[in-house]
Amino acid sequence: MNVPFASAYCPSYPNVEQEFWESNLVFVGKVISEEKVHETKDGFFDGINYRISVMEFFRGNANREVVVFSENSSGRFPMDIGKSYLVFTSITSGTFAGGPVYTVSYCGNSGEVTKGKKALALVRKLSVSSRNKHP
């Protein structure tokens, strides 16, 4: 039996600069582990928590290790253990293990570092300019 595949609907894709300024945390990090999460009573869906070792921060403040939640839906942002990613995150309501819950948009510019060199170069420039001013 064939099961139809549905992909996430993205009404628009932000450019790198727009997503940089709208994100709570932007960084490059390496995925070190993943943990499946089951739906909770307080409204969190099934998904995966990725524990990421941060190698370079560009925007926001966090520990050197960040947990990013990817909902089990067509809008999930899958990551592989051992790979490095440029990650643009937003904070959702609630906490995980005492810290904020970060999520990544499927419709954004996050992705493997090896495939996003132009985005990474722009983020580095934006990070330097953000230390001096914010639009």
Protein model, in words:
The chain is an alpha+beta fold. It has one domain (about 15-130): Beta Barrel (OB fold (Dihydrolipoamide Acetyltransferase, E2P)), CATH 2.40.50. Helices cover about 15% and strands about 40% of the residues. The protein contains two helices and six strands, in the order αββββββα. The chain has a five-stranded mixed beta barrel. β2 (about 45-60) and β3 form a beta hairpin. The chain is globular. The termini are far apart. The model is unreliable at about 1-5 (pLDDT under 50).
Secondary-structure arrangement, i.e. CATH architecture: Beta Barrel
Uncertain spans: 1-7
Helicity range of the residues? Answer: 10-25%
Beta-strand residue percentage: 35-45%
Overall geometric form? globular
Span between N and C termini? 53 Å
Q: Can you give the mean pLDDT?
A: 82
The helix tally amounts to 2
CATH class: Mainly Beta
Please give the number of β-strands: 6
User: What is the structural class?
Assistant: alpha+beta
The description of the largest β-sheet is: 5 strands, mixed, barrel
The sequence of SSEs as H and E is HEEEEEEH
- Number of structurally distinct domains: 1
Rg over alpha carbons? 15 Å
CATH topology: OB fold (Dihydrolipoamide Acetyltransferase, E2P)
- Spatial strand order of the main sheet: 1-2-3-5-4
